[in-house]
């Protein structure tokens, strides 16, 4: 990637440059004329799925970009730093690669529910709760044969968006309901085009793809060219802005824009085969005309889910066909009206018309019409001229193109204040920190173990099996089916939670990272995967408000609703049917197969009574939920259904309730079962109340209305960033290509204890082998290259390194491997133990039998490398009974947030080694607080291309058979995962390196990494690290003058960080100002750190009091 800072002298300076974002409306001077358009690609985009190669291929360099810049952009799809792709609204201009200094921001598109900030260096963020826009319009209809119909050539400015509606009724991403049973999202729209010819005949052409742009000579006169050109705009099925623009040259080319008023020509065969609406085909009439209508004919829909919350028993209905003929099915489909605002408008007044609230979706290039054209003609006299339908053979041609927008938004900030802002004064909050919370959000306590919290996986949790089944004859079969469903979900394991505390955020202090929370008094909320189980309830809120650290709470997906989420509304469960307190304690164990199954009654009916009590409503809801999810295409949701199916006697209980489904009439097909029932079962979240109630807009009604409901009655079925396409859900845990994954760690960097871990010179991996006479059996084995670490000579490395960690400023201490004393008390870095393999070793149950002779030679070779070359700060243990299993302790490098903290990993050398990399597992001790590092997952996954858990761009970045070694893996983790600023290890975040406006993001991540790694120290001292107990004790506990005494150092250094963070002026501290790269710790971080310090100081005091 070419950097804008190392360029020719004509490159503008980078200081003070405004950052632009996707869909920004900007102006750029092209060919000496100010041209308006939108940003369609920036240098800091992370989503490669949105790259439009056709547009990139057509791009030309702007005033600053060089041919090399353009070539790099067209090869990679990524603009050089501080460049962006500008798509003019005028099709006479091609897309251009322009520098940020060439651009002027005119408007910034925000949608209802977007998260925003005032600047990137401030912590406080907010959510857009309403949007208002005023637009400038130009008419699209110009008929060369009827100039008397031409409207005025001037723009109509200052038109409120609420006065307009989109010309195209159906568009991509619209939500549609079919026969009141299935809801889906539109993914494509097929349109037919009607044109009027010179003789005023009208025809729907046979193939719209054969239409080409045509600009008659008489329309190209001075004063008309700009209007006509800009009127063409860009085409998109939805009538909204598309990311693709095609230019019109002086010669005719296929029409990328099909809109009313566009002059086109085509082939005579396309006319002859068309559907003639007025007149008939005449070969003497030229095959050119003007478009008078663009009609959507077919929509293609990805069906999301059938309504599962119905009165009576659920009737499963097959998904509708993906392609829906709009003419044939018009009476069977309903378009869901999406909200463009919450409870009130930008001016603070309540909306009076929920169908037109805000008008916030209008953007440059949209085709619109006035809701009342007669009123508009009166209001905008001189600029709006109504074209009567009778003058255009009955077609509606009063269509306008949006050529300019100006938006303002109402924002609810984290402190619960509200302000009205010019959209250009805000920036989108794109890389939202995982610990952020906002007012109205419902939260749980991280690591809440007071209620039941289990992961359904019979292999990982053998204790789920009942200890006895003698008193439960049918339990073994139920247990087998149940555990099979849970242990083999196509979408991954499922979690069951019954949190003891559920609360609502009242406000949040983003700088202090502390939220004020009110807790529900007596909640009973049960969560499986992404669903709250029917019968859950939150109840009333306590009046007390409690300060909670951001790091202590989180919004679980099952209850973490956001504005704009599409939800299904469950019928209310009568109060007398709610679960009794006795059942609250027994229900999870009996229903879900947790420990305690053996205590159930002998008969399934008794079991069902314990699960459901006398709650007929709950059994019906559970049965309906199970049946509906079985009818879903998403694997994890199907797994929830299989779990519910295994409740003994559930189906029989429902049958005994004599609740029949809404039966279709005789001869009527099953898909018509719910036709005619109210469309009040689906809605959109528009507000999150501080009282715990959620406002849902019933957008499928002819007149939408708002209702307020408790969270337990809502099930999220669709969000704008959700991908429900079939085939996109993978159960391959090694598929790490999604953008929410961390970036690959590809390099192998060696170092010597106490030296810098980054920016080292590249050298050779050189394994120094001893001339031990006992090694003759290995003479026929080619030893792989491996790093050398010794105290006498610097290590070298020669390994393809696609990129290295970012340069560290000269005044900032670089990461260093910890230097440990070497004496008689020092434990060996590598050791083979004669004790049993610890029961908590991840791969103990997966290890194969005794290795073959050849495999044993390979294992012994690896052991030899480790025995000779392990650097300081890495300890490895293996076992005589399982030489293929290893446990590794890595001490966090100094001058990083991980310094002096223990990190434990399990490895297995598989029979396929070294053709395939070793298996690896990270022991995460974060207790639900998120990852300690982007590459180290809470579930134990390690994202490292060397391990094959990340797709590598070249073969040199992957595991190389007979060359790569275990030692390389260990050193890569220490040097390239446990780095000074781990935030940049997130996927794609390398593009931000050196950008000052992301320093806050990096500092917040390092803060979390620091407090979690201090907790790792406590955890390792409280819970023995089996196999490494002596090493952990020597490192941290042993009070010896010549020992490491890491516990004392951890306590002392942490106290320094805490004192520094509370000192006057601490708010100015940054990562670069502090050796451990954490800057000033927030109040929320200090809450957790002080708790950890109490425990660590207690251990240190106990160490000092212990007899010597």
UniProtKB/TrEMBL annotation:
Record has Zinc as a keyword: no
Cross-referenced PROSITE patterns: UBC_2 (PS50127)
Amino acid composition bias (Low complexity), ranges on this chain: 234-246
Location of region: Disordered: 221-248, 724-743, 749-832
Pfam families (alphabetical): SH3-B_UBE2O (PF23043), tSH3-B_UBE2O (PF23046), UQ_con (PF00179)
Keyword Transferase included in the entry's annotation: yes
Compositionally biased spans, kind Acidic residues: 724-739, 760-783
Keywords: Transferase, Ubl conjugation pathway
Residue span(s) of domain UBC core: 854-1018
Protein name per its UniProtKB record: UBC core domain-containing protein
Source species taxonomy: Eukaryota, Fungi, Dikarya, Ascomycota, Pezizomycotina
């Amino acid at each position: 990637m070419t950097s804008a800072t190392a360029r020719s002298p004509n490159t503008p300076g980078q200081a003070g440059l405004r950052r632009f974002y996707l869909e920004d409306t900007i102006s750029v001077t092209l060919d000496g004329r100010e041209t308006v358009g939108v940003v369609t690609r920036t240098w800091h985009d992370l989503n490669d799925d949105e790259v439009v190669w056709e547009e990139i291929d057509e791009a030309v360099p702007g005033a600053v970009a060089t041919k090399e810049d353009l070539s790099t952009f067209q090869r990679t799809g990524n603009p050089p730093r501080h460049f962006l792709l500008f798509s003019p609204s005028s099709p006479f201009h091609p897309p251009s690669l322009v520098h940020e200094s060439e651009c002027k921001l005119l408007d910034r598109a925000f949608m209802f529910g977007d998260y925003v900030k005032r600047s990137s260096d401030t912590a406080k963020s907010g959510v857009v709760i309403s949007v208002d826009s005023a637009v400038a319009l130009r008419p699209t209809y110009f008929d060369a044969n009827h100039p008397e119909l031409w409207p005025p050539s001037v723009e109509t400015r200052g038109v409120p968006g609420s006065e307009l509606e989109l010309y195209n009724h159906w568009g991509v991403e619209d939500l549609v309901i079919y026969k009141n049973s299935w809801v889906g999202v539109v993914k494509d729209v097929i349109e037919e085009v009607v044109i009027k010819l010179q003789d005023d005949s009208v025809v729907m052409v046979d193939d719209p793809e054969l239409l080409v742009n045509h600009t008659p000579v008489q329309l190209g006169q001075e004063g008309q060219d700009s209007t006509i050109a800009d009127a063409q705009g860009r085409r998109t099925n939805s009538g909204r802005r598309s990311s693709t623009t095609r230019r019109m040259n002086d010669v005719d080319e296929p029409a990328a824009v099909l809109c009313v008023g566009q002059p086109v020509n085509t082939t005579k065969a396309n006319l002859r085969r068309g559907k003639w609406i007025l007149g008939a085909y005449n070969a003497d009439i030229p095959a050119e005309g003007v478009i008078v209508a663009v009609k959507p004919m077919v929509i293609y829909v990805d069906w999301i889910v059938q309504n599962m919350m119905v009165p009576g028993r659920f009737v499963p209905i097959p998904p509708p066909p993906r392609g829906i003929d709009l003419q044939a099915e018009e009476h069977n489909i309903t378009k869901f009206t999406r909200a463009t605002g919450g409870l009130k408008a930008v001016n603070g007044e309540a909306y009076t018309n929920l169908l037109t609230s805000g008008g916030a979706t209008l953007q440059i290039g949209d085709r619109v019409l006035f809701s009342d054209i007669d009123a508009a003609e009166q209001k905008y006299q001189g600029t709006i001229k109504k074209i009567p339908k009778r003058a255009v053979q009955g077609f509606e041609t009063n269509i306008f193109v949006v050529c300019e927008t100006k938006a303002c938004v109402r924002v609810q900030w984290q402190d619960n204040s509200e302000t009205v802002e010019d959209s250009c004064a805000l920036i989108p909050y794109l890389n939202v920190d995982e610990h952020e919370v906002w007012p109205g959000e419902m939260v749980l306590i991280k690591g809440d173990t007071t209620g039941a919290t289990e992961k359904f996986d019979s292999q990982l949790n053998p204790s789920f099996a009942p200890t006895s089944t003698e008193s439960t004859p049918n339990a073994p079969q139920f247990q087998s089916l149940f555990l099979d469903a849970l242990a083999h979900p196509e979408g991954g394991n499922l979690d069951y939670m019954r949190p003891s505390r559920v609360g609502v955020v009242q406000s949040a202090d983003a700088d202090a990272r502390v939220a004020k929370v009110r807790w529900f008094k007596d909640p009973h909320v049960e969560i499986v995967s992404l669903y709250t189980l029917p019968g859950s309830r939150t109840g009333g809120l306590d009046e007390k408000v409690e300060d909670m650290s951001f790091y202590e709470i989180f919004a679980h997906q099952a209850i973490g609703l956001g504005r704009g989420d599409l939800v299904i509304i469950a019928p209310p469960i009568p109060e007398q049917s709610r679960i009794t307190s006795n059942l609250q304690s027994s229900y999870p164990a009996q229903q879900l197969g947790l420990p305690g199954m053996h205590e159930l009654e002998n008969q399934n009916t008794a079991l069902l009574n314990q699960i459901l009590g006398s709650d007929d409503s709950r059994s019906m809801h559970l049965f309906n939920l199970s049946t509906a999810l079985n009818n879903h295409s998403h694997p994890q949701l199907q797994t929830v259904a299989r779990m519910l199916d295994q409740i003994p006697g559930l189906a029989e209980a429902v049958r005994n309730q004599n609740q029949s489904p809404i039966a279709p009439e005789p001869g009527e097909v099953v898909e018509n079962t719910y036709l005619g029932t109210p469309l009040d079962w689906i809605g959109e979240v528009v507000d999150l109340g501080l009282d715990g109630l959620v406002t849902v807009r019933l957008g499928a009604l002819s007149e939408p209305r708002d209702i307020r409901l408790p969270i337990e009655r809502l099930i999220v079925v669709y969000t704008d960033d959700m991908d429900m396409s079939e085939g996109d859900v993978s159960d391959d845990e090694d598929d790490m290509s999604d953008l929410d994954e961390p970036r690959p760690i590809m390099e192998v960097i060696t170092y010597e204890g106490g030296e810098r871990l980054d920016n080292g010179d590249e050298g050779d991996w050189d394994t120094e082998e001893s001339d031990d006479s006992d090694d003759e059996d290995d003479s026929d084995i080619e030893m792989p290259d491996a790093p050398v670490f010794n105290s006498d000579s610097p290590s070298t490395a020669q390994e393809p390194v696609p990129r290295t960690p970012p340069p560290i400023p000269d005044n900032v201490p670089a990461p260093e491997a910890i230097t440990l004393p070497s004496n008689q008390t020092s434990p060996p870095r590598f050791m083979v133990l004669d004790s049993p393999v610890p029961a908590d070793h991840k791969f103990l149950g997966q290890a194969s039998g005794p290795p073959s002779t050849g495999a044993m030679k390979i294992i012994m070779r690896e052991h030899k490398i480790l025995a000779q070359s392990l650097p300081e700060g890495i300890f490895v243990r293996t076992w005589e009974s399982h030489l293929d299993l290893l446990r590794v302790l890595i001490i966090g490098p100094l001058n990083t947030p991980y310094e002096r903290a223990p990190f434990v990993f399990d490895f297995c050398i598989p029979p396929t080694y070294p053709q395939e990399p070793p298996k690896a597992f990270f022991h995460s001790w974060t207790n639900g607080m998120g990852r300690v590092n982007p590459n180290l997952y809470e579930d134990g996954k390690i994202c490292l291309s060397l391990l094959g858990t990340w797709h590598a761009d070249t073969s040199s970045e992957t595991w190389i058979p007979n060359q790569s070694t275990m030692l390389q893996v260990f050193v890569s983790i220490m040097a390239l995962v446990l780095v000074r600023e781990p935030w940049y290890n997130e996927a794609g975040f390398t593009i931000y390196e050196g950008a000052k406006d992301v320093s806050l993001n990096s500092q917040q991540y390092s803060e979390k990494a620091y407090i979690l790694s201090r907790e790792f120290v406590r955890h390792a001292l409280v819970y023995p690290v089996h196999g490494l107990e002596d090493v952990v004790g020597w490192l941290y506990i042993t009070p010896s003058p010549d020992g490491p005494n890491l516990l004392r150092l951890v306590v002392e250094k942490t106290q320094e960080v805490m004192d520094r963070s509370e000192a006057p002026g601490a708010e100015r501290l940054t990562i670069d100002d502090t050796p451990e790269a954490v800057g000033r710790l927030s109040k929320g971080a200090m809450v957790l750190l002080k708790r950890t310090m109490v425990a660590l100081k207690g251990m240190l005091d106990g160490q000092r009091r212990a007899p010597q």
